[in-house]
Design brief:
alpha+beta; 16% strand
């Protein structure tokens, strides 16, 4: 439509009274219902927004599992024959398995199992564990029990902290770490708590060969006596109401003294031979494979124990970490752990997630402010307020949709929300600008102008919005694993665009009419008769602070000159085509660097020190602190 035709259309435009009974006037004429809908969106949307879980990455179901078996000191060939193959033969009978791959190294067997994408992951995992248990009885006695673990993106710890204090030795620190581990693992939302850098107790028994010969004993006899004493024996079951309680005798040894008092042999009650009579028993540390040290505020580093906490799926990281920190404080208050024990967090994913979320909120607020200021400067205050209110309404509807589809606020959904900020106000700006043009004719009230705008622009808004919706919706049909990972991006974009379209053609017109001055036909005629007042309103509405008339005029002149001749149109189209082709050359020729994630500064860093081959690990702290 040319400028002349557009002006002529507005001059000839008349309001059809039949439009008063159309759906386009539904929200405009029902103010109470409109306010009820807005209030409902605010209340319910805010509740769902507060209910959304904060995560570092999307929750993705991976149809895979790993089976790990330790067979100490065995060669890779031995592990392959005696462990890996026997387990593979059993698990091959499990349904819904797609592929099985295995790796056998010295002392370890790792089997990776991939399931079909339409398998029930929980039932299949249960069947897999049953088959591994059946294979366990055929494995060597020296092999540890096989561990079956689902592959999950939540396998990495979300909270890592170290405990230390100079008044406690390594054994005491480990006991406190075990208490913390037991307390945290009581939480049903904790997957596991790993302890590293610790020294665990073990008991060494030094048997005197001369005393063995003196009492005519063998090593097998002593080993059998020690093993028999380190057991737990159930003796009775008591049923109370609907519950059954088991009573057992725990004869395991937890101290050097209890191990020394193990009876090796006795003759009636007059003579008893204890382990301490023929051997020396010591409490020592197990072989240390990792060392953890902690330095706070530049002070000398101390021996420490590091705990890494992993969460279960579908729960908010921020809420969980806060809950676990409260649990540690409660342990100090109850003296389960010493109140003066140093606890230092070295990794907290909840902090980075909260920072990202605060940045997102800041961007939202800036967008709302910029939209308001721009419309206020170019159009007018009331129209700016209408567009300004559409931003939080659209976002709250999007949060509502995210909650019902079990999505979380993660770095991808936050990216999609930021990306949608420049799209969600487009529909509101289009209808508000059009209404402003219709009002400038001084022929229509605010209500009539809005109804005419909805009638004239409903198809344009619908088709343009659906075009962008289909572009993002096509991302939902990607490969299953990638689709699960990036699903939040197209979903959030689609929800934002559709909600912005709905609000632009329903609530925005109703709000504009409700906050407009009384502008009935009589009011318009009265304003037209007051020439000075008409001149004032025309100046305010047309030019307010910023006038775009000059830009519009120049743009119209350039477009008219460009399309006035066929040759110019062809040259312009060829130029656009060449520009498009040249833009594709940049990533192909690597003139434009491509990277999946941009570089950014990390709050933490690590230093790797490689020493000469054979250097004992006990020298690692000395080497690290001296450089």
């Amino acid at each position: 439509m040319t400028k002349h035709n557009e002006t002529q259309y507005l001059k000839n435009l008349e309001f059809d009274e039949k439009l008063n009974d159309s759906w386009m006037s539904f929200f405009i004429d029902r103010k109470r219902f409109t306010w009820l809908v807005i209030l409902l969106i605010w209340v319910v949307g805010y509740i769902w927004y507060k209910s959304l879980d904060l995560e570092s990455s999307p929750e993705v179901q991976i149809w895979a599992a790993t089976i790990t078996t330790t067979f100490n000191w065995a060669s890779p060939e031995t592990v392959e024959d005696l462990v890996t193959k026997k387990i593979e033969q059993k698990i091959a009978k499990v349904s819904w398995i797609d592929t099985i791959t295995s790796t056998s190294t010295e002392g370890n067997s790792i089997i990776s199992v991939e399931f079909e994408s339409d398998a029930d992951i929980w039932d299949t995992l249960s069947d897999l564990k049953d088959k591994v248990d059946e294979a366990q009885v055929k494995l060597p006695a020296d092999a540890d029990e096989s561990s079956v673990k689902e592959v999950s993106m939540d396998d990495s710890p979300i909270w890592t902290f170290s405990i230390s204090w100079e008044n406690y030795d390594d054994f005491e620190l480990y006991e406190y770490a075990k208490n913390i581990q037991d307390e945290l693992e009581k939480n049903s939302l904790v997957s596991e708590v790993d302890i590293s850098g610790w020294k665990e107790k073990e008991f060494w028994v030094y048997i005197d060969p001369k005393k063995l010969e003196k009492y005519n004993l063998t090593l097998d006899t002593i080993n059998s006596a020690i093993s028999a004493s380190n057991t737990t024996s159930p003796i009775w079951d008591i049923k109370i109401s609907w519950y059954k309680h088991s009573i057992s005798v725990d004869s395991r040894y937890y101290s050097v003294q209890s191990l020394k008092n193990i009876v090796i042999w006795k003759k009636w009650d007059s003579w008893i031979l204890y382990l301490k009579d023929i051997a020396e028993v010591k409490e020592v540390a197990k072989k240390v494979t990792s060392i953890s040290r902690l330095s706070i505020s530049g002070w000398e580093s101390l021996n420490a124990v590091t705990l890494s906490v992993k969460k279960k799926r579908w729960w908010s990281i921020v809420d969980l970490v806060d809950e676990w920190k409260v649990a540690l404080e409660d342990m100090k208050k109850s003296w389960t752990i010493p109140s003066d024990l140093n606890i230092k967090t070295t990794l907290d994913e909840s902090v980075s997630i909260e920072d990202d979320f605060h940045h997102l909120v800041r961007d939202w607020l800036l967008t709302i402010l910029l939209v308001f200021v721009t419309l206020f400067a170019i159009i007018w205050l009331k129209e700016a307020l209408v567009a300004w209110t559409s931003v939080p309404l659209v976002l709250l509807v999007t949060f509502w949709a995210m909650y019902w589809y079990w999505l979380t606020l993660n770095f991808l959904s936050m990216f999609a929300l930021i990306l949608s900020l420049w799209l969600l106000v487009d529909d509101a700006i289009v209808v508000i600008s059009a209404m402003n043009q219709y009002k400038k004719t001084w022929k229509f009230t605010t209500r009539e102008a809005w109804i005419l705008v909805i009638r004239d622009y409903k198809k344009v808004l619908t088709t343009t919005t659906l075009t962008v919706v289909f572009i993002f919706a096509s991302m939902m049909f990607m490969d299953w694993m990638m689709w699960k990972f990036i699903f939040s991006i197209p979903f959030v974009m689609v929800a934002t665009l559709l909600s912005s379209l709905f609000i632009a053609v329903t609530l925005n017109p109703a709000l504009a009419v409700m906050i407009a001055w009384k502008d009935s036909k009589v009011d318009l005629e009265e304003l037209q008769n007051r020439k000075w007042l008409k001149w004032y309103f025309k100046k305010v509405i047309d030019h307010w602070f910023i006038s775009l008339h000059f830009i519009e005029k120049k743009y119209w002149e350039i477009i008219s000159w460009l399309v006035s001749k066929t040759r110019r149109v062809r040259i312009f189209l060829i130029f656009i085509l060449l520009l498009f082709i040249s833009s594709l050359i940049f990533p192909i020729t690597w003139l434009l660097k491509v990277e999946f994630f941009p570089k950014w500064d990390e709050d933490n860093f690590s230093i790797d020190i490689e020493a000469e081959i054979g250097r004992a690990h006990v020298w690692t702290p000395v080497t690290a602190t001296s450089r």
